Amino acid sequence: MTDTALRVAPIAGALGAEVFGADLAGAVSDTLFAELHKAFLDHLVIFLPDQKISPQQLVAFSQRFGEIAPVRFTGPFDMPAVEGFPEIYQITKEPGTTGTNIGGFWHADVTYRDRPNLASIGYLLEAPDYGGDTMYSNLYLAYESLSEGMRALLEGLTAVHSSTMPHAHGVRSAAVSREHAPKAEDGQLQVVSTEADIIETEHPVVRRHPETGRKSLYVNRGFTSRFSGMSVEESLPLLHYLWTHAERPEFTCRYRLARNTVVVWDNRCVLHYALNDYYGQRRVLQRVSVDEPVRPSA
Ligand code: SIN
What we know:
Blueprint: E1 7-10, E2 17-20, H1 30-43, E3 45-48, H2 55-63, E4 81-82, E5 85-93, E6 117-126, E7 134-138, H3 139-144, H4 148-155, E8 158-162, E9 200-204, E10 206-208, E11 215-217, E12 224-227, H5 232-246, E13 252-255, E14 262-266, E15 270-274, E16 283-291
Parallel strand pairs: 2-3
Antiparallel strand pairs: 1-2, 3-14, 4-5, 5-16, 6-14, 6-16, 7-13, 7-15, 8-9, 8-12, 10-11
C-alpha cells in the first residue's frame, strides 16, 4: 500500500474520522505522517482500527506529534506506567470495579498545566463486548456558534484551571446505575494531590489553534475553576452555560473503540468523555500524551 492510499471516513458532522490504509507497525514515512497529521487537524480526532503495535511502536508514533508528556498527572490521578515504558500509562477498568472511571466527565487533559497536552494517543488493548465508548466534542464549533456579543465578552477573559478539579467531583460518578457507580467510600474518588502538588494556571478563555489558526472555546468542566479576577460564585453561572454549550450533542461524536484501535485526539480543541456503561467487563487502554511546545494563546 502506498502512502497516498489513506481513506479518511468521517463518522459525524462535528468531528471524528476513521482512517484506513496506514499500518503503524510498519515504517511511518514522513509522507504518511503528513497525511495522518492533516486528517488529525481536519477532523480533530482520528481512529485507526486494526493496528497491531508494540509499546515501542506506540511511543515512536506518538513522538511524531511532539515531546512526550511525563506519565504521572501531577494530581489528581496517579496512573501506573507500563513496565519498561515510562511514557505509556495504562487505564484499566476491571469487571467488578466500581472505582473511579478515569475520564468519565467532559474535559480536556491537564489544562491546569502551563503547557497542557497537545494530543493524546490511545491504543485499546482490551475492549468490552458493548459499552466503553468515548465521546468527543468540537470546541471550534462551540466558540463559533456563540453570539457575537458573547464572543466579544469572552475574548477579553482568562480563566484559572486547577488540578484539584474543583467542580468535577459530582459528575465523575456517572454510571448506568447507582449500584455500578464509583462510590466515595472506595476512596478512589479522592484527589491524590497534596497541597504541594496542586497546580493552578491561567489560560485565555478563547484560544487560537497554533496550527489551524481557528479560535476555540477553552474552558472545561474538569479543570476550569473560575474566571481570572472573579470569585467562583461570580464565575459559575457563565461557566456552567459555556460547559453545557460545549457539550451539546450536535458538537460531539461517539466512537466504539474496538480492540487494537489507535485513537489520536487534538487536546487543544477537543473535549472527551469516557463512558462508564460496561460494568462486569474489562477495558484496557494504553495512552501516551504529547505536550504543547508553548502555552496556549489568544
Ligand atoms: C481519558 O483519557 O480521559 C479516557 C479515554 C478513554 O478511556 O477512552
